[in-house]
Design brief:
Layout lengths: L2 E11 L3 H13 L5 E14 L2 E15 L1
Antiparallel strand pairs: 1-3, 2-3
């Protein structure tokens, strides 16, 4: 039986939600090993005038604990 832990990460990107999600997983991977999955819990954008300038995600990342 595996024991999993879940952390929550917020990340942003000027490109896309997918890019923000990749950044969240990459940043978490710097301090957490054995990442098993990522669940995008929430998405939002920053708008300046009539342009979307930033994509934001709130991601739940699960990893296996030894």
């Amino acid at each position: 039986m595996a024991v999993l832990k879940v952390i929550e990460i917020m990340a942003n990107s000027t490109e896309s939600w997918e890019d923000a999600t990749r950044k969240a997983v990459k940043q978490a991977g710097k301090s957490v090993k054995n990442i098993r999955s990522a669940y995008v819990r929430e998405q939002s954008v920053i708008v300046n005038g009539d342009n979307v300038t930033e994509f934001r995600v709130n991601v739940k990342i699960s990893f296996e604990v030894n």
